[in-house]
Amino acid sequence: MYRKNINFKLLVFLVLITFSIQIVISHPTKTPSSSPTPSQTPNITETPTSSPTPNPENECESVFFTFNEWMFKFNKTYKDPIEFKNRFKIIKQKLEIFKEFNLNNPNASFTLQLNEMSDWTEDELSNLSTLTPPVDHCDTDSSDSDSDSDSDSDSDSDKGKGKCKKNRISYYSPSSSNETMPNTNLLRAPASFDWRSQGILTPVRNQQYCGSCYAFAGTALLESYIKRKTGGAYDISEQSVIDCSYRKYMYGQHNSGCQGGWPTAVLDYFNDMDIVMESEYPYTSGISETHGYCLKPFPTSNIVRGKLRVTNVRVRSEDQLADVLLSKGPIIIAMVADNEYKANFQDLGTGIFDMEHTITAQPNHAVLLVGYGIENGKPYWIIKNSWGTSWAMGGYGKIARGKNMCNIMQFGIWYVEQ
After folding, report:
1. Which CATH fold would you assign to the domain 123-417?
2. Which CDD domains is this protein grouped with (predicted)?
């Protein structure tokens, strides 16, 4: 009996020793410089210090998941972790703006959404809105200069400024009417109309990092005009306009490559040069962010026979604007499209863009006006933008009609005819 008791006590002692050793192995003492090996089990009360993918500043998983989805959708890659972190911060700020907007505007008529440009810096976004109207006074130090000079030697301070020609300069070219359109018998306009349904519009383009909305609006107008008149579908080269109208002082106004320009100069340029196709002169400034050398001579296209009459005219009302849209086809308008709005127009999603506060800024972006309608009792315009198909609704947006939204009445409208 005594030996059995000894054996039993010895067995219990050995079991306790074995169990203690297992505990020590499973829970080793941590030091600041050590970390668990793959065979060790970390303390479950500790917060993990890493994750399978880099999560900047340990942000909320839902935000980072949204960022990853957005990167995948738009095939985004970054050169290093620093850029990754900076772009993530921009997206995070965007999402916070969207959340605040939704909380403060529960009855808003439009939504905000991420698009291809959502990780752009303020400097990069500034390229989207560079419409540059000519000055309405003479530059005394340049009035005697060669107005047809092709030189790139002008200082950066002159970018976007028109020079004098015959001691006069205005917003309008000689081929345009610089007066307000007289009152006319307005058409019995339908409640809604959309030139897209007529099949005359070409696909939405993307100006990317180049301030070339003036060129894209001009080519979009001419493409729709040609298709409406002849049925022919053409993809006209914006790059040829950017390169070959650069610093061409036509009628007292000029374009400045990726630094902005003016639709009248573009449309007058089409009268002076053969029109070249995108396939022969592809767009490169969206990545290079600058104009290139004009690659002349162009192949003769003859897609427009005879001269175009370019008209830039002010209308008296938005009702008259609808009248011109119906009778003349798609038209170019200038609008304010930047951060003066509490909600960023560059983030527009679905619905009708409409803000209560008055905009007094000078229009800085050119788009094509293609239609109008009424949605839930709210009248709107339809615009074709040049910011790619991820913006708004496939590259087309709606803005409130009847209240000079985005200051669209200031610079009048542009259309062409023969």
Report:
1. Cathepsin B; Chain A (3.90.70)
2. Peptidase_C1A
